[in-house]
Amino acid sequence: MSVELLNDTERTTENDHPAAQSIQVAQQSERAVRFVASSNFAPLLASLKLSLLVSTYQAGKLVAVGTGDSGLGLAFHNFDRAMGLALEEDRLAVGTTSQIWLLRRSPDPVQGMGPSGTYDCSFLTRSCWYTSNIQAHEMVWCGDELWVVNTLFSCLCSPDEHYSFEPRWRPKFISSLAPEDRCHLNGLAVEDGRPKYVTAMAESDTAAGWRPTKATSGCLIDIDSGETIARGLAMPHSPRVNAGRLFVLDSGRGQLVHVDRSNGHCESVVQLPGYTRGLAVHGNTAFVALSKIRETSTFGGVPIAEQRDQLKCGLAVIDLAAGRTVATFEFQSGVDELFDVQVLPGIRFPAISGPYAHLEMGAVWALRAEHGS
Hints:
5-stranded mixed sheet, mainly beta, Neuraminidase, 6-stranded antiparallel sheet, single chain
């Protein structure tokens, strides 16, 4: 078991607009995060030549998980209720309470990012879109466009320079845009570079209408046709298309499932010991984020609530061909809920300079390399 002391930054301000950050008062506190990994977890990351980014809104962190000379490495970075992550080449978007932060991969070495050799790339915060609280869930890059699941307004949207967001699509059963979280739209899958599938917790057109039936009314919707192709899921999340196969997390049952697109039949790939939310697929390997569940009405009645005391928070690594778990990572304390996970192929361990990096590690500078004298 390993222990990491987290510096938590609590910010107080007169309002939540970015311009007010200059008058914020930062309060630092520490808490211990204990974690344990299966013996093959770090070697598996190293053999696949990748690292992971994991978001946790409960702890307010973006976690980098990678490897180095000493084995497994973790780095925690402050983001206010970190939710959806979207990664595309040199761009990383991180959804938070009221903003979507844009980080760019630095092409040159960065000063102030830790001992030489620790990290093999750097992502630096460069700008943000201010959306106000739209309960932004999953996000994806489609070319130069960022598509965001706008859960509060029950639609897909993109950032806009003049408005809080630009609506792009909404389910057929949603009659109008309203800040009412009518169906708890949450997950988004891409196929052939275009948004293709979304998950919702019910086909409801009333304010919070998904809550009474959430244990059985979850659905998977085809964006192009607007038709619901699978029903009967329990609080589903994170649809993904990989090598022509469609996967989704049946979160309330703790399962990763395969969906037959021809008839909507869902077949369990593997049963997992947690609320499954957050899925990244790399080749024939799937990384599934697991969460514990709170004793609140939000999770009341879902099947895995019966095993509440046995649920874990962490990551399960799944061999999709064999349909079994091959490696695990578990937070034993300090972090109870995860939201998203992303794979960083070809990166051993990324350095992240978030919007509050000056409070975590001091000043960070990215300078263009000088050529000649």
